[in-house]
Amino acid sequence: MPAVYHDRSARRHLCRDHFIAAVESRVAETIRSRQMIVPDDHVGIGLSGGKDSTALLMLLSRVLPSIGRVRLTALTVDEGIHGYREDTIRSADRLARDYGIDHISVSFSELFGKTLDAFLVGREHEACTICGVLRRKALAVAAKQAGVTKLATGHNLDDEAQSVLMNVLRGDLPRLVRDPGSASQGWFIPRVKPLMYVAEKELAVYLMLHGAWPDLPECPYAVHALRGEVRTLLATLEQRHPGTMQHLLASKAQIEKRCGRVSGAGPVRQCTKCGDPCSGEICQLCLLKKRLGM
Amino acid sequence: MKIILPDKTCRTQTITKMTVGELLQDLGINPVEVLVSLNGMLVVEDARVEDGDEVRIYRITHGG
Ligand SMILES: [Zn+2]
Question: Domains of chain B (ranges plus CATH)?
Answer without folding.
Answer: 2-59 (3.10.20.30)
